[in-house]
Structure formats: structure tokens, C-alpha cells
Design brief:
Length: 447
């Protein structure tokens, strides 16, 4: 009868009785309950004493088309609403823009600055842990779903609403100023380009005008030189003709003297005179032969010779001389050159510059003041949060109670296993044959 209990106890030590474990844990319900209460108290303390963190967000969407219509109609700067939203988003995500806002609004970030840290270090920590920019899924992005969400997590002693709204306005103003600066640079570059084209046209006109004047003056000089040469040649010709005429007259006078002709006569008249007739006969001589010069008689010939010898200028004898004088006088002043030189506003004579001037006038009339430009629509501005996002009291308390309960159960389970093993050890020692052969001492109890 002594061996049966030992066999049953030994068998129980090798198997785990779940019912017995649960019963053992229930017997230690005070321990489990104490651990649960302790963890719950710690959770409640953490939930009510931990620093509170709040979260605010702002959502930006593309501006209406009419807001950017004036800028896009300028034909200088194209900015669709989606691109404007992306530009503002780039400013919101820009480290430089965030640091600039941080430096320009230090009074809002006094609680963030820690002793021993520089301004940039304090901003780096705040920027890394507090500001989050989120965009829609690119695969689903379209004009209806495009947006930018900016979230800010901040402790209780910071005005997060003012920071987020201020930063959004700061980024929009920064991008608006950038667009204005870009537009101004583009317009100035375009004006400089048009001015260069107009200056090139003006320079080309000046060159063409000077070339035309030079050609006209050169043609006048050539014509004047040709007329001068012609005048000299004509005068020389007339002088030679006069000299030839004088020689011709001298020869005719000599012949007339030898023939005794003093007055003009004809060959037929001389024939009648030699016959001595008294009849008064008037004859008309018609022939196609030139009458020799000496028939004019010595008186006429000597008179002509005297006149030719006394002549100092033969110009009146040739009408071409007067014509050349007229042409030379006309060449003294080139009226076309004079008119070209006296042009006042020469820009009106430039070719193909009317479109350029119209573009210059249009660009100068553009309104490049972008202070009122609406780049994006602020769909939702940051508002004061109703409750903090950290710590979440209910969740913390529930989790602490669960953790405490689990800790209590594990502790009770461990104690139950340890106690069960201790109770099983005496029975296992009696079953050992080596121990059963050992001589029993007088003070050992009999089992």
C-alpha cells in the first residue's frame, strides 16, 4: 500500500494539469489583482502626468483657374494651378524656407530652444520630429484630388496653430515673391531682347542710310568729274575749231585778195562780170555744191577773222556748255542727301519694327505686382485642437491594466510551478532505489 501513492505522485510530476494550474492561479488572485492594480495606477499616472502633445493640420488645394488667368494671359509666364500648388508644396518642404520662418518668428519657438543648443540645432530637432508634409497617391492624383497636407505636432506650451498658419502664409508669400521676381526678370529679359532687336534695326538703318548717302555723293562726284571732263574737252574742241577757222579764213582772204574779191559774190556773178554785159539780170543759182569761202570777199572774211581773234571764250557757241553748267549747278547740292541728313525722328523709317514696338508697349503695360496673386486655395486652416493626441488616456490605462493582468498571471503561474515542484521532490526521492537501501536513521520518520 505504500508504493501506490509514490507511483501516482511521480506520474503527476511529469504532466501539467491545466485545471490544477488555473486553480492555483485563482488561489493567488490577490497577487494577480495587485499587479493589475499597480500597473493600472502607473498607467493612470502616466496618462495624467505625461507631457501632452497636440496636432494641427492645414490642407492646400489648387487655386481656381481665374485666379491665375491674368498671369497666364501675359504670354510670358505660364503657371497652371497644379504647378502653382507644387511650387508652394516645394516651399513648404524646403529646409531653407522653414529655417527662414523659424528665424523670423523666434518668439513662437522660445519653448523649443534648449539651453546649450544653437538656433539651428533647436530648429533641426523641431523640424525633424514635428513637421510632416503629406501628398496624395501619385497614381490617383488628378485635379480633383490634388492637395497638400501639412501637419504639426507640438507640446502644450507652444502655439502650434499660429506656427502652422503662419508658416503656410510665409511659404505662400515666399513663393508669390519668387513668382513676381521670376516674372520681373523674364519681362526685363524680354524687353532687353526686344530693345536689342530694335537697336539692331536702328543700326542697320543707320548703316543703310550712310551707305546710301555715300553712294549718292559718290555718284555726284563721278557725274561732276565726268561733266568737268566733258566741259574741258568741249572747250578744247571749240578752241581747236576756232583755230582751224582762223587758218581757214586766212587762206580764204589770201585767195580773195588774189582774185580781187572784196564783197560777197558767186561764181555765176563773176562770170557775168567778166563778159561786161550791161543788162541787169537777176539770176538764182541752185546747186548742191558748197561755195568756196573766198567768194565771201576780203571784207567779210577779214571781219570774221578779226572777231574770232578778239574772242576770249567760245562757250556761247555750243549749247552743250550751258547744259553742262546747269548739270554742274544741280550737282552742287544733293537734295536727297540733304533730306536724309535732316531727318528728325528716324525710328519711323525703321523696317519691320512695328511688331517689336507693340510687344514692348504690351510688356511695359503688364502688371508685374504679384502681391495679390492667389497661388493656392487654403482648403482648411489650422484650428485649435479639442484634445491632445498624446498621451491617449483610455488606451494607456487599458494597456496598463492588460499588462498588469498579464504580469500578475505570469507571476502566479511561476509561483504555482515552483510550489508544485517542491511538493513533488520528496516522493521522487523515496522512489530512488539507492535511497531505499540506505540505512534509516533513528530520527527519520517512517513513510
Amino acid at each position: 500500500m505504500n508504493k501506490t501513492p509514490r507511483f501516482q505522485a511521480h506520474t503527476a510530476s511529469d504532466e501539467i494539469d491545466l485545471f490544477e494550474l488555473c486553480h492555483g492561479i485563482w488561489r493567488q488572485k490577490k497577487l494577480v489583482l495587485g499587479c493589475t492594480i499597480l500597473a493600472g495606477v502607473l498607467g493612470v499616472g502616466y496618462a495624467f502626468l505625461a507631457p501632452r502633445e497636440y496636432q494641427v493640420s492645414s490642407v492646400l488645394r489648387p487655386a481656381a483657374i481665374n485666379e491665375l488667368d491674368a498671369l497666364n494671359r501675359s504670354e510670358v509666364y505660364k503657371l497652371p494651378p497644379a504647378d502653382a500648388l507644387n511650387k508652394v508644396g516645394a516651399q513648404l518642404d524646403s529646409y531653407e524656407a522653414r529655417l527662414g520662418f523659424f528665424k523670423s518668428h523666434e518668439e513662437l519657438f522660445k519653448a523649443v530652444q534648449k539651453p546649450g543648443q544653437s538656433l539651428e540645432q533647436s530648429f533641426e530637432e523641431f523640424n525633424r520630429n514635428s513637421i510632416n508634409l503629406s501628398l496624395p497617391d501619385p497614381k490617383k492624383a488628378d485635379s480633383l484630388s490634388s492637395y497638400i497636407r501639412l501637419e504639426l505636432q507640438y507640446p502644450k506650451d507652444i502655439d502650434g496653430v499660429a506656427i502652422l498658419n503662419g508658416f503656410v502664409d510665409y511659404a505662400i508669400n515666399l513663393e508669390r515673391a519668387q513668382v513676381g521676381a521670376d516674372l520681373k526678370v523674364i519681362v526685363n529679359n524680354r524687353l532687353n531682347e526686344l530693345k536689342g532687336k530694335i537697336d539692331a534695326a536702328r543700326s542697320n538703318y543707320e548703316t543703310e542710310k550712310e551707305s546710301k548717302i555715300a553712294k549718292l555723293l559718290e555718284a555726284d562726284r563721278l557725274k561732276r568729274a565726268q561733266l568737268g571732263d566733258e566741259l574741258v574737252a568741249l572747250r578744247l574742241q571749240m578752241k581747236m575749231e576756232r583755230t582751224d577757222r582762223l587758218q581757214e579764213l586766212a587762206e580764204a582772204i589770201s585767195i580773195a585778195k588774189s582774185m580781187g574779191i572784196k564783197t560777197p559774190t558767186t561764181p555765176s556773178s563773176m562770170a557775168d562780170a567778166s563778159r561786161g554785159g550791161s543788162n541787169q539780170v537777176m539770176r538764182t543759182e541752185v546747186n548742191n555744191q558748197k561755195i568756196p569761202l573766198y567768194f565771201l570777199g576780203t571784207e567779210a572774211l577779214e571781219a570774221e577773222r578779226t572777231a574770232l581773234q578778239a574772242r576770249t571764250n567760245d562757250d556761247f557757241t555750243n549749247s552743250r556748255i550751258a547744259q553742262i553748267g546747269k548739270e554742274l549747278q544741280m550737282l552742287e547740292v544733293n537734295r536727297e542727301v540733304e533730306v536724309l541728313k535732316k531727318r528728325g525722328n528716324e525710328d519711323i523709317f525703321l523696317q519691320d519694327v512695328e511688331p517689336l514696338r507693340a510687344e514692348v508697349a504690351r510688356l511695359r503695360g503688364l502688371n508685374i505686382d504679384m502681391s495679390g496673386l492667389k497661388l493656392v486655395t487654403i482648403d482648411r486652416r489650422a484650428q485649435e485642437p479639442l484634445e491632445p493626441i498624446k498621451p491617449k488616456k483610455v488606451l494607456v490605462i487599458v494597456l496598463s491594466l492588460i499588462v498588469g493582468l498579464m504580469l500578475g498571471v505570469v507571476t502566479a503561474l511561476g509561483r504555482q510551478l515552483i510550489l508544485g515542484r517542491r511538493e513533488a521532490v520528496p516522493y521522487s526521492l523515496q522512489d530512488d532505489p539507492r535511497l531505499s537501501q540506505r540505512p534509516r536513521k533513528d530520527d527519520e520518520p517512517h513513510i
